[in-house]
Amino acid sequence: MGVNQRAQIVMSEEEVTRFVEQSRMVTMATVGKEGYPHLVAMWYGVIDGKIYFETKMKSQKVQNLLRDPKITCMIEAGVTYDELRGVAIEGSAHIIDDTEDPEYWAAAVSVFERYNGAYTDEMRPIVEMMMNKRVIVRVDPVRVRSWDHRKLGMDAMQVAGSTAEFIGSEG
């Protein structure tokens, strides 16, 4: 029988916060009309530890969330088993469509800054254009799971297998 190493690889709250703040991509899962998960890769913002997305109101993900607000977000990293780490956040989505809501603008700026650089007042028209016909989705966490295989203290593994030659290439 194998040894359960789950407790050994869990990230602390501080590690989760740092990982979420420093990562660039998240996979968002919503519940589709037929009950299947609908998965999309997303850019995101972070305010007070919560994840925010900006997306079109008519997008499939928003339509799914209007029907069922359940959402799961996964952020992951690592190429070999000894490097795997990630955070999965299960929660409820809150859609903000009021462009006058300060949270709406704060989330838009957070997303902008993560991928474009520091926000200034001169950038406002650019962010307003980015947010045209878009809503904000805030993830209110219910459960957070994390893993960091680097805590296992394994020897570094070589990238191998039939996909190894494609690591780091654009295909």
Model description:
The protein has 171 residues and is α+β, with helices and mostly antiparallel strands. Helix content is 26%, strand content 33%. It has five helices and seven strands, in the order H-H-E-E-E-E-H-E-E-H-H-E. It has helices spanning 6-9, 13-22, 60-67, 102-116, 124-130, and strands at 26-31, 37-42, 45-47, 50-56, 70-77, 85-96, 134-148. A seven-stranded antiparallel sheet has the order 2-1-5-6-7-4-3, with helices on both faces. A hairpin with a 2-residue loop joins strand 3 and strand 4. The termini are far apart. The model has no long low-confidence stretch (mean pLDDT 94).
Sum this structure up briefly.
The chain has helices at residues 6-9, 13-22, 60-67, 102-116, 124-130, and strands at residues 26-31, 37-42, 45-47, 50-56, 70-77, 85-96, 134-148. It has 171 residues and is α+β, with helices and mostly antiparallel strands.
Topology:
Layout: H1 6-9, H2 13-22, E1 26-31, E2 37-42, E3 45-47, E4 50-56, H3 60-67, E5 70-77, E6 85-96, H4 102-116, H5 124-130, E7 134-148
Antiparallel strand pairs: 1-2, 1-5, 3-4, 4-7, 5-6, 6-7
